[in-house]
Amino acid sequence: MTLDRGSVGGLTGPVSNERVQVREYAMALAHVASLRSEDPFRKVGAVALDFDNRVIGTAYNGLAPGFDPPEGFWDDREKRQRFMLHAEINLCSLFRRGEAKLVASTTMPCTACMQTLCAYGIKEVYYRDVYHESHASEIAEVYGVRLERVSEYPLKGFGAVADETAAQG
């Protein structure tokens, strides 16, 4: 059965009574977290779920708390990249090793972030956008971590600016 929600909370279209899959739920949460990123070039969000699929935390890429960037900081993408804290690293600061079962991130983890996720005992990693410079697939295979792309999820069109920015890379 499908209901029409009309315009509830700014969302339009039909409502399904089918339960969303955990990976899609997690990706929707990661997508919403990405909207908090201050990075104008790449907005990345991440979420961690425990073994009962409860949310442990959400995070996004950005600068260290309390850092006030100087004027022109955001103008040079190459220069500012080394100062950006990745969403996955920010996320791992919210839990201890072995507490999280899965992580969803709007971008495939970079090599260092994938290594960190493995060190934290994450067993499943879901991502939306491919990051070609990453060795995440190889690392996941060696450590027995499920790494899967999720391209369809609730709220996909919400915050289209984040989607467009991520696609630009």
Structural overview:
The structure is a single chain. The protein is an alpha/beta fold. It has one domain (20-168): Cytidine Deaminase, domain 2 (3-Layer(aba) Sandwich). The protein is 30% helix and 24% strand. The chain has a 5-stranded mixed beta sheet, sandwiched between helices. Strands 1-2 form a two-stranded antiparallel ribbon. A hairpin with a 5-residue loop joins strand 3 and strand 4 (55-60). Mean pLDDT is 87; it is low at 1-12 and 165-169.
From the N-terminal CA to the C-terminal CA, the straight-line distance is 39 Å
Q: Assess the beta-strand content as a share of residues.
A: 15-25%
**Unreliable runs:** 1-12, 165-169
Tally of individual helices: 6
Main beta-sheet annotation:
5 strands, mixed
CATH architecture: 3-Layer(aba) Sandwich
The Rg value, from CA coordinates, equals: 16 Å
Apparent shape? globular
Q: Tell me the CATH topology.
A: Cytidine Deaminase, domain 2
**Average pLDDT reading:** 87
Query: Given this structure, which CATH class is correct?
Result: Alpha Beta
Total number of domains: 1
- As laid out across the biggest beta sheet, the strand order is 4-3-5-6-7
Helix vs. strand class? alpha/beta
CATH homologous superfamily annotation: Cytidine Deaminase, domain 2
Q: Helicity, in percent? A: 25-40%
Helix-strand pattern, N to C?
Answer: EEHEEHHEHEHEH
Number of strands: 7
